[in-house]
């Protein structure tokens, strides 16, 4: 567990050591998280390890990406268990900055804006969320200076916007998306799943079932896929559908019924007060 200064020092020591021994600089793979780690996070860590360099994991519950009335205060914090899980995975550096360390002058006046896609879907439900997320990712990337940063495909709009920021601002790193890790019944792992009571947990399965329904109906085109997915969720009384939309992965804009190729079905629903999201690729031929 390290602070900003300690992390910078350790990473520059590793770089200097490589230079002294005439070795190429080891790649640094970076996994940003908000902690309360589960197997989804660990899949990112394992992929990062496979890349062969050093692995940095950050744990930071970023106040900037939570709106008023959201779950910032009750967001699960399980630092000891997180640190032992990361130790067991052989992570080189765990970076756990405090809010004061990340924002010494209070909320930053300079921020990244996510642009038009930032106010769609998750951004419509959570105004300012993506600006806050991109701002902290930019700060973390500047601190860690990784070769590659890994993100979960589960948060598809987040991956899209991070890739866009990296391209738009010429950030010198590669972004890699890691497939979604699921429970046996299909529910995508999420730190927020622990908010679900037993009945809600059963109802939460409706999101992945809706994605399957959309996928099965994709032969009939986009409109049929959307209708099949939406009616799967509307059949579950404990779930309140926010959106189920088919988007073009290249633009994250909704596609028309004439779209052909690989598209992304994205879904959000509130189950017993907990907002859940999921997505899956579908083929439209
Ligand atoms: P979070 O701690 O929720 O900010 O998530 C940190 C990273 O883990 C993000 O890149 C998420 O997309 C990723 N992640 C969360 N859940 C999963 C999952 N079920 N499968 C794969 N990646 C995930």
Briefly characterize the structure.
It contains ten helices and eight strands. With 285 residues, it is α/β, with parallel strands linked by helices.
Describe the structure.
This protein is of the alpha/beta class. It is built from ten helices and eight strands. The protein has a five-stranded parallel β-sheet, sandwiched between helices. A three-stranded antiparallel β-sheet has the order 6-7-8. Strand 1, helix 2 and strand 2 form a beta-alpha-beta unit. Helix 6 packs across helix 7 (156-168) and helix 9 (206-217) runs antiparallel to helix 10. The protein is globular and about 60 Å long. The model has no long low-confidence stretch (mean pLDDT 96). It binds adenosine monophosphate. Adenosine monophosphate (AMP) is lined by residues 33-34, 40-41, 43-44, 151-152, 154-155, 178, 180-181, 188-191.
Radius of gyration: 20 Å
- Trace the largest sheet across and list its strands: 3-2-1-4-5
Number of helices: 10
N-to-C span = 49 Å
Name the helicity range. Answer: 25-40%
Low-confidence stretches: none
Number of strands: 8
Q: From N to C, what is the helix and strand string?
A: HEHEHEHHHEHEHHHEEE
Helix/strand/pairing class, anyone? alpha/beta
Mean pLDDT: 96
The shape, in one word, is globular
Which ions and ligands are bound to the chains?
adenosine monophosphate
What proportion strand?
15-25%
């Amino acid at each position: 567990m390290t602070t900003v200064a300690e992390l910078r020092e350790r990473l520059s020591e590793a770089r200097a050591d490589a230079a002294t021994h005439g070795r190429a600089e080891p790649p640094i793979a970076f996994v940003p998280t908000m902690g309360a780690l589960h197997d989804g996070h660990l899949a990112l860590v394992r992929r990062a390890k496979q890349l062969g360099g050093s692995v940095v994991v950050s744990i930071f519950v970023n106040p900037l990406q939570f709106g008023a009335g959201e779950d910032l205060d009750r967001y699960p914090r399980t630092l000891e268990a997180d640190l032992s899980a990361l130790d067991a995975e052989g992570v080189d550096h765990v970076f756990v900055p405090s809010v004061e360390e990340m924002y010494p002058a209070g909320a930053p006046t300079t921020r990244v804006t996510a642009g038009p896609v930032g106010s769609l879907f998750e951004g419509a439900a959570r105004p300012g969320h993506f600006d806050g997320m991109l701002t902290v990712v930019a700060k973390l990337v500047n601190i860690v200076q990784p070769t590659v940063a890994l993100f979960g495909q589960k948060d598809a709009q987040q991956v899209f916007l991070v890739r866009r920021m990296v391209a738009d601002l010429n950030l010198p790193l590669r972004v890699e998306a890691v497939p979604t890790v699921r429970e046996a019944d299909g529910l995508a792992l999420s730190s927020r799943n622990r908010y679900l009571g037993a009945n809600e947990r059963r109802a939460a399965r409706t999101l992945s079932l809706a994605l399957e329904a959309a996928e099965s109906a994709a032969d009939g085109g986009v409109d049929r896929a959307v209708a099949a997915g939406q009616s799967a969720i509307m059949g579950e009384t404990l779930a309140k559908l926010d959106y189920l939309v088919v988007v073009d992965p290249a633009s994250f804009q909704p596609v028309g019924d004439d779209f052909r190729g690989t598209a992304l079905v994205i879904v959000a629903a509130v189950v017993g007060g907990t907002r859940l999201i999921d997505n899956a690729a579908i083929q439209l031929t």
